[in-house]
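Lay summary. Proteins are chains of building blocks that fold into shapes, and those shapes determine what they do. In this project we predict the shape from the chain. Here is one chain we studied, written as its sequence of building blocks.
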Amino acid sequence: MRKIYYVPGLISALIIPVLFWYYINPYVDETKYNVIDIGLPAKLEKDKSNLNSTFEPLRNWDYKKIKIDHNKAKENSKLYVSEIKSLQKKNQKETGIEFILDKNNSYGDFVSVLNNMTIAKHDTYCIDLEKTGHFFATVNYKNPNAKEEKFECLLCDDVIYTYEKPTFKDKFSDFFNGKYYQILFESIPKLPRSALFLIFGFLLFLNISMFSIKERFQLQRLHY
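And here is the predicted shape, written in a compact code that computers can read:
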């Protein structure tokens, strides 16, 4: 009986994926993308029926004006954060900071100002898209003479867990829709030509191996 040598094909099928990952790894995009949520004040109706839902009641407050220079927001981030914290510390009614943005500012400037709000832990701010386009940080006034009401907390120190046993469909979906596969397939168009040759070689040797195995089984069947 003629011998069929398909071991080299199987070895190639194991080695080529390793080489493929070695060459693709520098091209894998591991950038972490984030989403920023920001609330915009409602547009003032002609009859002013929604006045309290707009920025208009706060427009004439006493604002400290700060001009944001082009592509300088991140560089001056510490200064802006200190101004916001100073606003919080003073705790004066109807005050705030007006960060002046114009058409010369970049998206990075806008994101940096938003990030400053997070660093300073300041939750009251908005963008005046209707008129000025400026970014306003308004004071969250706290009455120093207000008495804190005490109430019984029924759920304090309790931990609530919600657990649903994953079905076979969920496990199957997680396996094929994992982050690893998503990164891998998104990076394929960025591969160099050498990596594409590796993929073609892998498929070719795998195909040869499968034909060799099939031929062996056919010869064994004829022998019996």
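What the prediction tells us: DSSP finds six helices and four strands in the chain.
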